[in-house]
Design a protein that fits this description.
The complex is a heterodimer. Chain A is of the alpha/beta class. Chain A has helices spanning about 5-20, 25-40, 65-75, 80-85, 115-130, 150-160, 185-190, 205-215, 235-240, 250-264, and strands at about 55-60, 135-140, 165-170, 195-200, 225-230. Helices cover about 45% and strands about 10% of the residues of chain A. By secondary structure, chain B is of the alpha/beta class. Chain B has two domains: about 15-170, Rossmann fold (3-Layer(aba) Sandwich); about 190-315, Rossmann fold. Classes of the chains: A alpha/beta, B alpha/beta.
Chain lengths: ~260, ~325
C-alpha cells in the first residue's frame, strides 16, 4: 500500500478512537478513492472551497465521513489539532456523519440518511450545466445504498439531462450481497445511460486513469466508476471481522490496527 | 400500582426483547413476518433472520419498498412487522405508509428504533422528533413510545391483528424497567403511576421514569404530583386526561419528540374542547437533533426532571 494510504488510514483510526465511534470498514474501503479525487482529479483546494466553479465532492454514503476528514487535513483545509479534541464531543461539528450546517465550505452535504447525496449531486451538476460552469461533481455512494429508490430516480434524471459533468462512484465493497442480490450493477448503470468504468478501488493509478478517461468523454452521458473495494482494506483484523462495520478502537486496538496498516 | 422502577440498566434490553418476542410469535402464528431494511445488525436480529427464513426478510437499504412489500404480504394473508430507525421508518416513507398501508386498509406494524434523542451520536440525520406528529395524522393509527421492555413486548403481541398503521417508537437499549413483568396494557388506556393533587405529569416513553423522578423532587418541596404514563399517544385516554385536569387543575406533559404535534398537543386537543386547563409542554421545542449522549441531549432539550420541576412551579406560580 502506498505511504499516503497508510497515513490516511492511521489518521482515520485515530479520529475514530478520539470520537469513540465510527464505521471504519466503510472508511477503509473508500479512502483511496477520496484521496485520488482530491489529489489528482478535482479542481479543489482550500482557497477554492467556496469558489462557485470548484469541483464538488458529495459524500452520499455518510457512514464513511471519517474518510473525508483525513483527506481534508492532508490537503491543509482542516487541522488534526483542531479536529482530534473536538470530534464526537457534544454539539461538535465533527462526528461520524457530516453536518453541513456547521461548516462554511469543505463539507458540501449532510450525510447520514442514505439515498440523499446522489439526487443532491445531480441537482448541482444540472445547475452547473445551466450556468455553463466548468465544475464537475463527484458523488461517493455505497453499493448497498443503490437499494434506495431515490438513487435510481436520480440516475434517470442525470441521463435525461445529459449530465456528463456528474461522476457517480460506487464503493463496491459487496455490502449489498449480504442483504439482496443486486445482479449486474454495471449493466444496470449502462442501461440507465451511464458511461461505466470498473476498476480496483484500491489502485490509485487505475482510479486516476478511469476518472481522467471519463472526464474526457464530453458526450452527454453521466459517468460512473464502479470501484471494486474491500471492507476494512489495509487491516487484516477489520477485513476478517464485520464487527468493525460500526466500532471504534480503544487504546489497545488503535495500536494493533495501526500496526496492521503500517505493515500492509 | 406496583412498579419496579429503580433507574439504571434494564434486566433485558429492548433489542433482546424484540428478538425473543418475535420468536415466540413465529411459533404461535406462522403468518407473522418481520422485515428489516438492513438494520438487523443494529437490532441484533441477524440470527433470527438465519433461523427463520420463512418469517424474516431483509430488503436491503430500501425503506420505502419495505413498506410496499409489507402491504403486499398483508394482502396475501401475512402479518408484517417492519423495522428501521425511526426517521427512516416514518419520515422517509410517510407517503407509502399513508397510502399503501393506511388508506389501502392494510395492517402493518412499524417499529421505529433509536427514537428521538436515543439516536445519540448519529446526530441530526438520525434524530427524529417529528415521528409522533406525522404518524398521528394517519387516520386510525396507533402511536406509542415504549416505556420499557414489558410494555414493548405487550404491544408487539397485542397489535398482531390490529388493522391499519401501528407505530411503535422505542430506544434500542438503556430503557429502565418500570413495569412488573405481568403488567397488562390496553390501547387508549393510560396508567396512573403515582397519585397527586396539585399537578399532573403526563408522559410517554423515556420521559415516564423522568416524571417519576420529578414527582419525588416536587414532593420534597411540598407539591403533590400525579404521574401518568399515557401508554398510547394515539388513541389517547381522553377520560384520564380530563379527570386529571379536573382533579389537579394543572398539567405538564413530557415527551421525547417535537412538542408540535406530539403528546403535549394531543393532550391540549382533548382539553381545549372539553375542559380548558393550563398545560406546559416539556419536549423538543421545534429544534433539529445534534450529536451527544443521552445525558447531554436531555440537558440540551430540557428532558430532565429539573426542567419538569421548574415548569410545574412556573405553572403553579410557586
Amino acid at each position: 500500500m502506498q505511504e499516503i494510504s497508510k497515513k490516511l488510514r492511521k489518521e482515520a483510526l485515530f479520529l475514530s478512537h478520539k470520537c469513540k465511534d465510527g464505521n471504519l470498514q466503510s472508511v477503509f474501503s473508500c479512502l483511496d478513492i477520496v484521496w485520488t479525487l482530491y489529489d489528482k482529479i478535482m479542481n479543489w483546494s482550500p482557497a477554492k472551497a467556496q469558489d462557485d466553479n470548484r469541483d464538488f465532492f458529495i459524500i452520499s454514503k455518510g457512514q464513511a465521513t471519517l474518510a473525508l476528514y483525513p483527506v481534508l487535513i492532508e490537503k491543509g483545509y482542516f487541522q488534526m489539532d483542531e479536529i482530534a479534541p473536538q470530534i464526537g464531543q457534544f454539539n461538535s461539528r465533527y462526528c461520524i456523519q457530516t453536518d453541513l450546517t456547521k461548516f462554511e465550505g469543505g463539507v458540501e452535504n449532510n450525510a447520514g440518511s442514505l439515498g440523499h447525496g446522489l439526487p443532491f449531486a445531480t441537482g448541482i451538476a444540472n445547475a452547473n450545466k445551466i450556468k455553463k460552469s466548468p465544475s464537475d461533481v463527484y458523488v461517493l455512494c455505497g453499493d448497498g445504498e443503490f437499494c434506495e429508490g431515490t438513487m435510481w430516480e436520480a440516475c434517470i434524471f442525470a441521463a435525461a439531462k445529459k449530465l456528463d459533468n456528474l461522476t457517480v462512484i460506487v464503493d463496491d465493497n459487496n455490502s449489498v450481497g449480504a442483504m439482496v442480490d443486486m445482479g449486474d450493477m454495471r449493466q444496470k448503470l449502462e442501461a440507465f445511460g451511464f458511461d461505466v468504468e470498473v476498476v480496483n478501488g484500491h489502485d490509485m493509478d487505475a482510479l486516476e486513469q478511469a476518472f481522467k478517461k471519463l472526464k474526457g468523454l464530453k458526450n452527454g452521458k453521466p459517468k460512473a466508476v464502479m470501484a471494486k473495494t474491500v471492507r476494512g482494506y489495509g487491516s487484516k483484523t477489520m477485513m476478517e471481522n464485520d464487527i468493525w462495520f460500526h466500532k471504534s478502537p480503544n487504546e489497545e486496538e488503535l495500536e494493533l490496527l495501526s500496526r496492521e496498516v503500517e505493515q500492509s | 400500582m406496583e412498579l419496579r422502577y429503580m433507574g439504571g440498566a434494564p434486566e433485558k434490553e429492548i433489542m433482546h426483547v424484540f428478538t425473543e418476542t418475535m420468536e415466540e410469535m413465529f411459533h404461535e402464528d406462522s403468518r407473522v413476518i418481520y422485515i428489516d431494511a438492513d438494520l438487523m445488525g443494529s437490532l441484533k436480529t441477524s440470527e433470527l433472520w438465519h433461523k427463520y427464513p420463512k418469517n424474516v426478510f431483509n430488503t436491503g437499504i430500501q425503506e420505502a419498498n419495505m413498506v410496499g412489500v409489507a402491504a403486499g404480504l398483508y394482502l396475501a394473508g401475512f402479518k408484517p412487522y417492519i423495522h428501521s430507525f425511526s426517521p427512516f421508518a416514518t419520515r422517509r416513507v410517510f407517503d407509502q405508509v399513508f397510502l399503501s398501508v393506511g388508506y389501502a386498509q392494510k395492517s402493518v406494524r412499524i417499529i421505529g428504533s433509536d427514537a428521538g434523542i436515543m439516536a445519540t451520536k448519529n446526530g441530526g440525520t438520525h434524530m427524529c422528533f417529528e415521528d409522533v406528529a406525522l404518524m398521528r395524522t394517519v387516520p386510525g393509527s396507533l402511536v406509542l413510545e415504549a416505556t420499557d421492555g414489558v410494555m414493548f413486548k405487550a404491544f408487539l403481541k397485542a397489535t398482531k391483528d390490529r388493522p391499519g398503521v401501528t407505530y411503535i417508537k422505542t430506544a434500542r437499549r438503556g430503557l429502565p424497567d418500570i413495569y412488573m413483568p405481568d403488567e397488562q396494557f390496553e390501547e387508549g388506556k393510560g396508567k396512573v403511576l403515582r397519585e397527586g393533587s396539585d399537578v399532573t405529569l403526563i408522559a410517554a416513553g423515556i420521559m415516564v421514569g423522568t416524571c417519576l423522578d420529578a414527582a419525588k423532587l416536587l414532593a420534597d418541596e411540598g407539591i403533590s404530583a400525579r404521574v401518568i404514563d399515557i401508554v398510547t399517544i394515539k388513541p389517547i385516554d381522553e377520560a384520564l386526561v380530563i379527570e386529571s385536569a379536573q382533579k389537579t387543575g394543572a398539567i405538564v406533559t413530557a415527551e421525547n419528540a417535537n412538542v408540535i404535534g406530539g403528546l403535549g398537543s394531543a393532550v391540549c386537543d382533548v382539553l381545549s374542547g372539553k375542559y380548558p386547563t393550563k398545560v406546559e409542554k416539556v419536549g423538543i421545542q421545534d429544534l433539529y437533533g445534534c450529536v451527544g449522549d443521552e445525558a447531554f441531549l436531555r440537558e440540551k432539550y430540557g428532558l430532565t426532571k429539573e426542567n419538569i420541576v421548574s415548569k410545574v412551579k412556573g405553572l403553579l406560580n410557586r
